[in-house]
Each structure stands twice: as structure tokens, then as C-alpha cells.
Amino acid sequence: MLCAAAFFRNKGKSVVTEKEFLMGISMDFRWMPYSDAKELLAALLAAKVVKRDGDLIRPAFDVAGADVPVAYRPPADLIRKAAPSRETDSMNFPQIIAFAEKHGMRKKDFISASNALQKRLGISPEAAGLIVLRDNGTDISEIAEKVYSGISRE
């Protein structure tokens, strides 16, 4: 909650777009990489610290009432603390990359194809990776359910 309060106070706004939130956390304040900012937003949404109204993100609490230290910077382990415990039966993109390499795909080629498909279809990296594997003739039956489990929680 402290991180969200600091963000909204520093921005001087009570409502921001998702992109503005992510760019603000990563680029404006340089608190963390963009990918970590996405995880933080997901954790804040799951914990109901912030809420989504369409493409807009707003705090779910009174920001003015929060006691935010001057020059606040979130701790490095904030995402781990804020994120709800993840089930171990899901797969993230780095695990899918390892699976692709194990089945003979070059890492660079796999990532490039996954990124292109993700951008073209507007899907998650994990879903794109699964499709790339399938389209390249890899049997995905042993990981499909794990990938789906992770995607369905997002």
C-alpha cells in the first residue's frame, strides 16, 4: 500500500492509465524494471490495493491518509512480499524457454518467434511460446496445462 500511495502522490493524480502506471514506476521513478512493474501492478490488483476501471488504475484506499516517507523507494523484495503465493503448477516464460531449448530450439530463435507472435496476436508471452513450440512440432502436452494454469490467473 505504501508503494501505491507514494506513486499516486508523486504523480499528483488519483487516476492513471495502466501504461502510465507501468512507465511511471519503471521509467519516471526508476524504482524497478518494466517487467517487475507489471508484476507489482498484478500483485497490487490481486491484493486490492489498487483497482482497475477499464484501462484506468486508481487506489482502493485514501492516499492522503497514508504516511509516506520523504524520498520513498520501494524495497527490492517488494514484489515477492506483495505477490500472492504462486502455485508451483504453473510455468513462466523463462521455464518455457528452457523447455524449448531442451527440445532442440535455439533460444534466440524461440524468443524472436514468441515475441513476434505475442505482438501480432496481443497475447501473453507464455501463450505465444506455447504456440511457437506447437507450430514447430514439439509435443507440448506435458507443459500445456501448467502454462494454461499460469495464464488463467492473470
Summarize the structure.
With 154 residues, the protein is mainly α. The protein is 56% helix and 6% strand.
Features:
Arc Repressor Mutant, subunit A; 8 helices; 3 strands; about 150 residues; three-stranded antiparallel sheet
Q: How far is the N terminus from the C terminus?
A: 20 Å
Number of strands: 3
For this structure, what is the CATH class of the largest domain?
Mainly Alpha
**What is the rounded Rg?**
18 Å
User: Which sequence of SSEs, written as H and E, runs from N to C?
Assistant: HEHHEEHHHHH
Structure annotation, total helices: 8
CATH-derived topology of the largest domain: Arc Repressor Mutant, subunit A
Task: Summarize the structure in words.
It is a single chain. A hairpin with a 2-residue loop joins β2 (50-53) and β3 (56-59). The protein is mostly helical and 154 residues long. It is 56% helix and 6% strand. The protein has a three-stranded antiparallel beta sheet. The mean pLDDT is 86. α2 (18-28) packs across α3, α5 packs parallel to α7 and α6 crosses α7 (125-135). It is built from eight helices and three strands. The two termini are 20 Å apart. The chain is elongated. It folds into two domains: 2-82, Arc Repressor Mutant, subunit A (Orthogonal Bundle); 93-152, no CATH class. It has helices at 2-11, 18-28, 34-46, 78-82, 93-102, 107-121, 125-135, 141-152; strands at 16-17, 50-53, 56-59.
